[in-house]
Predict the structure of Diguanylate cyclase.
Amino acid sequence: MKKIALITDGWKRYVTYAWVEGYRRIASVLRQNCPVGSICMRYGGDEFVCVVPDLDIRKLHQLEQNIQHALAELSSASHFSFPIEASIGSVIADDPVFSLNDYINLADQKMYQTKKAHKAARGATP
């Protein structure tokens, strides 16, 4: 079992309509980019988790790039006054000793590290 975890970055400062519409659009990007057989769901408020079968590290990085590219295109075409962005944390779940929850937590930690780096690059407080 392989998975990526995705979190939207910076949504909480905007009105509820933007959250709902943004989440719908992000879910659409995930559906369009994740391979058939993937399971994607909203998780923990403003996060999404995708469990994607049969990915090696190269395919995983390509999927991350495809998602980021699709989000950038979505953002540039959107009517929102703010960018649609995401921080991604991913893991290859290849050790049966760890549970699905363990892998989700590990991907979540990686995602928060990425999110912190994105905020630091923008000059925001993490």
